[in-house]
Amino acid sequence: MAILIKQVELSWLDRTYVWPILKGMAITLGHFFRQLFTPTSKRFTIQYPEMKKEMPEGYRGLHELKRFEDGSVKCVACFMCAEACPARCITIEAEEFSELNLTQGFEEKRPKRFEIDLLRCIFCGMCEEACPKDAIWLRKDYELVGTDREALRYGKWDLLNTYAEPDGKPVIKTDPTPSTPSRKEVACS
Amino acid sequence: MPTLAHLLHLSPETLWMVAKVLIVFGGPFTLASLLTWVERRGAAMIQDRIGPNRAALFGKWRLLGLPQIAADGIKAFLKEDLVPPHVNKLVFWVAPLLTFLPAVMGFAIIPFGQSFVSGGQTYHLSLLDPGNGMGMLYPLAIGSMAVYGVLTAAWSSNNKWSILGGMRASAQMVSYEIAMSLAVITIFMRAGAYDPHQIIQAQWGLWNVLPQFLGFLVFTTCMFAETNRLPFDFAEGEAEIVAGYLTEYGSMKFALMYLSEYVHMVTASALIVTLYFGGWRVPFVADPGVWLSVLAFLVKLLFFCWLFIWIRWTLPRFRYDQLMKLGWKVMLPLSMANFLFHAFLMFKRG
Ligand code: SF4
Ligand code: SF4
User: Fold this and answer.
1) For residue B92, what pLDDT is reported?
2) Is residue A17 located within the same domain as residue A83?
3) Same domain for A151 and A92?
4) Taking a C-beta distance cutoff of 8 angstroms, is the pair A53, A77 a contact?
């Protein structure tokens, strides 16, 4: 169907150009003064290094591997996320650990190596969806930089501590429980 | 003045001349570079942005972004001075000068303050003293020279965008010059003289803008066209012809062309102020004295410079045929009507 364009009938005042131009100038001057007297914090522009944008709920930023209260890894190395990942950027190596404690329940498997190549990651959040233990979250950090490609391959301890600072949690670099020697390795050798 | 001259072992005339040259060439130049800052920050504010505010002196003092001017200058100097292989080298080099010089020279005739008497001698606050026989014809002639800069830049660039820009600039200049001249002639007629000092003298009590409002409108519009500013900036027209006559220019040559647009703006504002807003006159003060008159001139000048910027960020660019239509079918008849009306008034009064 044809779209009817509304014809605007200009009054003689509008056709002089001068009056509409003055009106336009009033608008721009209004904006000028409004912006001039708006404090920096209230302006639309977010002055980046000093001010940061608060990301909306559900924003998919840098991953975090979740921990229990005692600092042990929630992840059970089930490989669901690695399977779900469309970019195939998660590498997991599992290990067993002996001492069962309360928070860990009956699980006895955990990742020995958990690596995400963030250069390949497309931040789709599939890993988060797939995880049965809610162990991997995509959170709000969007300032992801590195000096080379290797720096952006985040390992297990990097991922566990990505949000330690903003959350005010201690940075943990060791598992609370030692792992048992791999039986598989023994069998194979 | 004579004591200072005595201290420097100069005659007062020489010292005064040197001072004036410094003021007249340094003033618009400084003002123009400041205007680049005003333009960028002002435009930002008008568009609810913030504008350049990061450049800082010694990495510390941001001063509202003013160091940006210096930063841009340094950048322009340090950039590679690229001359494309297909240009006419000589003309390509001369063009920035041809654009820049007329812009600065136009200011020489403008009286930027009241003349004063010191040590039995009259000092005029304009580079060219009154009674030099050129009067207001001089800035108009020089102003029209500016199009040569644009044209040579366009021709020498040997580039289709450039040449389109150059053609547009020249066509625009021709269509607006006539209307402008007619508006100015009306002023000459009313003042009975074409020397800026006398024109300002004639505006005693009543600035020309009131009786000749039509002339003022036409003249201001033509000044926008002359300075190649929006809404008449399609010699550059970045939406359709890249950067027009500036397409092949880079580094300091570009900076010079860019700056000359602002110097041109200052000169154009000075012309408007002199012709229509009583030059250095202060309302309700018969004899303002040197400092007050210079201040008044500066305030008016800055207002019109701001007007140029303000209009630029308010109006969209005209289309080429619209510009031609406006020039020939609106501006020229209006200017003519203004001229005839005042001629008739003068005839009636005898
Ligand atoms: S966000 Fe998507 S691409 Fe990135 S690791 Fe998770 S599943 Fe893979
Ligand atoms: S992060 Fe979740 S889905 Fe991935 S291996 Fe660990 S428990 Fe399984």
Assistant:
1) 85
2) no
3) yes
4) no
Reported ipTM: 0.77
Contact across the interface for A31 and B310, Cβ inside 8 Å: no
Dihedral angle at the C-alpha atoms of B247, B249, B253, B254, nearest 10 degrees? 40
B119 DSSP assignment: T
What average pLDDT does range A98-118 have in this prediction? 72
Same domain? A157 vs A79: yes
Length of chain A counted residue by residue:
189
Instruction: Tally the domains of chain B.
Output: 1
Annotate chain A with three-state secondary structure.
CCCCCCCCCCCHHHHCCHHHHHHHHHHHHHHHHHHHCCCHHHCCCCCCCCCCCCCCCCCCCCEEECECCCCCECCCCCCHHHHHCCCCCEEEEEEEECCCCCCCCCCCEEEEEEEEECCCCCCCCHHHHHCCCCCEEECCCCCCCCCCCHHHEECHHHHHCCCHHHHCCCCCCCCCCCECCCHHHHHHC
**Residues 6+ away with beta carbon under 8 Å from A161:** A171, A172, A173
Residue owning the nearest CA to atom 3 of ligand 2: A131
Query: What percentage of chain B reaches a pLDDT higher than 70?
Result: 99
Residue A87 and residue A137 in one domain? yes
Phi, psi of B233 (to 5 degrees): -95, 35
Q: How many CB atoms lie within 10 A of CB B190?
A: 19
d(CA A38, CA B90): 51
Q: Rounded to whole angstroms, how far apart are CA atoms B249 and A21? A: 33
Backbone phi, psi, residue B177, to 5°: -60, -40
Instruction: Specify whether the CB–CB gap between B50 and B40 falls below 8 A.
Output: no
Chain A nearest-CA distance from B322, in A, is 13
Report A:62-81 residues touching B (Cβ under 8 A).
Answer: none
Distance A132 CA to ligand 2 centre (A): 7
Q: How far is B241 from chain A (nearest CA, A)?
A: 26
pLDDT band at A120 (very low <50, low <70, confident <90, very high): very high
**Residue to mutate (ligand 1; options A123, A144, A158, A159; most atoms within 8 A of CB):** A123
In a domain, A188, yes or no: no
**Helix-helix angle B67-78:B251-276, to 10 degrees:** 140
> Does residue B195 lie in a domain region?
yes
Residue A139 lies in domain? 63-167
A119 lines ligand 1 (CB under 6 A): no
Provide DSSP, B231-295. TS-TTT-TTTSTTGGGTT--HHHHHHHHHHHHHHHHHHHHHHHHHHS-TT-BTTBS--HHHHHHH
**DSSP three-state, residue B167:** helix
B324: Cβ–Cβ under 8 A, 6 or more apart, which residues?
A: B171, B175
Q: Count the domains in chain A.
A: 2
- Containing structural domain, residue B111: 81-349
> Residues B73-110: pLDDT tens digits?
888 888 888 888 888 888 888 888 888 888 888 888 88
Please say if the pLDDT value at position B64 is more than 50: yes
